[in-house]
Amino acid sequence: MRCFCKPHKFFADSWGSEFVNIDKAGHINVSSRHTYWDEGMQILKKLD
User: Which one, 8, 11, 15, 31, has least CB within 10 Å?
Assistant: First the structure.
């Protein structure tokens, strides 16, 4: 599998953020038919 994450990781590191690769999930929104997402909620709770 080819990874296009390098620019994303570079910017996350530059901003002092953590890069989280969610693989092929694409845009995370209701329009993309994402429903309750346990892993996403765990990531969100880490921000609190």
Answer: 31
